[in-house]
Amino acid sequence: MRLLLIRPPRRNAHDAGLGVPPLGLAYIAAAARDEGHHVDIIDAYVRDMSWSRFAAKVAQHRPDAVGLTVMTPMVDVVARAIQVIRPYTDHIAIGGPHPTAVGAEVFDDLPGVDAAVEGEGETVVGPLLAWWASGSQGPPPPGVRIPDCTFVPATPPRDLCTISRPARDLLPRDAYRYLFATRRGFATMITSRGCPFACSFCDKSVSGSLWRARPAADVVDEMAELREAGVGFINFYDDNFTLKRERVIQICEEILTRGVNVDWKCEGRVDSVDLPMLQLMRRAGCRVVAYGVESANPATLKLLRKDIQVSQAKGAFAATRAARIRSLAYMILGAPGEDEAAVRRSVAFCREIGADYVQFSSLVAMPGTPLFQHRSTSASVKNPVDGDLTRATLTDLPEAQLNQLMRQAWSEFYLRPRPLARLARDAVASGSIVEAARLSRALGRWVART
Ligand code: B12
Ligand code: SF4
Predict the structure, then answer these.
(1) Does 379 have pLDDT greater than 90?
(2) What DSSP element (H or E) covers 265?
(3) Most buried residue among 128, 156, 173, 397 by CB atoms closer than 10 A?
(4) Residue 93: DSSP 8-state
(5) Is the beta carbon of 237 within 6 A of some atom in ligand 1?
(6) What's the mean per-residue pLDDT of the chain?
(7) Can you give the pTM of this predicted structure?
(8) What number does the ligand 2 atom closest to the CA of 269 have?
(9) Cβ-contact 33, 167 below 8 angstroms
């Protein structure tokens, strides 16, 4: 079959979202190719394609089947893309966190969809295409939901080495950028899937709680292949890269032994790093670690079921700085129970611990998260990088007040000489000048709305 995988265009010209590769689609493409299908990917988002040009591209392809990935904040954009695609193909499938989290409801959200793949899709896409090719005889394969039919889940792969490398050759590799990268040539990788923690705001419906990891040698093989292809900076998007200290050490030692010269960033938990490990990571090319600090208020950390202490954040940021690695703090402002003073405490905390970058968000109950059942709210609080139309926010603060505090938090942190100079240097080093300009415009427009 001719399968076309699609990331739709930006919602509008003001969307300042990052040009990160659609790694899930690249994994699906590789799995479908392994089964003998012809696969193409259109990343209309990173290509800055207009909606009319996107429609012309799809018409030109005339695929047998189309696949799209859906995160909850993107439902409206995917719905628009489906309307565009529908006349040109007989089969439309979706996958990703949203269909996995909402189950059968997805056909109400996205009426033109024929099939929704739930969970990890590499072992499901081949059987789905085969089922369609044979005229959809009998029930759909495990992992595939169709309207009005009993759903049978697929078993996710235990051994991640059985999964083919993502088909990055189908992506416009040179178009991807990461604002905080320290070198040019950008790629993303996943070295483990799943996370055993139970944070109440986190949607783990795709990869689940069972942590599965690739061996160090396999991880470094992929890094070396990317380096060979001109990549200078890799962003590890594992849910929890630093979960097992021993494995982090093995990866770093393997990088050093083999002399793989690439810079990288990972996501870590503040309770699973220490100075010797961070120093080794730095020697092996780690330049940025992003931590879910979330809050400086113990009651909020408890509500978020984050299972960390405020003091651990202080320790992790001090050790990260001592290891000469930059730090990024993800923060949640205005969670239920927080008043203005509590919000200000979290904002001040980021300066206190010396975070190099921060990302302030409000508390959103996404489908698939434990918080979703408590989503009685009419507040919408956004930050300057949110492209979506609304952000249903859980808070006890008045919407206008939290919006105001959010604006102050972003502008007080970034509109200072040091962070601005750092961002400008990073934009040059990573070749992200266009992206930085787009983000600055979004930040300026957003701050000016006060
Ligand atoms: C990288 C990333 C991003 C990138 C963008 C990713 C991109 N270009 O697609 C950036 C940084 C921009 C981002 C932003 C946000 N993100 Co994000 N992000 C991730 C992250 C860390 C990794 C994604 C990834 O590459 N996974 C690896 C691949 C292999 O998995 P996958 O994409 O799920 O794909 C598999 C399956 O889903 C399925 N599949 C997926 N698509 C398809 C399509 C077909 C046809 C088929 C058959 C199968 C299939 O098969 C794939 C292979 O197994 C995930 C967490 C995670 N570990 O997945 C969160 C995650 C996807 N993000 C999430 C959220 C909440 C956000 C934000 C709202 C955060 C915020 N506070 O602003 C924003 C939303 C941006 C927006 N407006 O759209 C949630 C989504 C929850 C939900 N219900 O939608 C996640 C799951 C985090 C979490 N645990 O809660 N994100
Ligand atoms: S937020 Fe991080 S630590 Fe918490 S459950 Fe999600 S992936 Fe795991």
Answers:
(1) no
(2) strand 263-268
(3) 128
(4) E
(5) yes
(6) 93
(7) 0.95
(8) 3
(9) yes
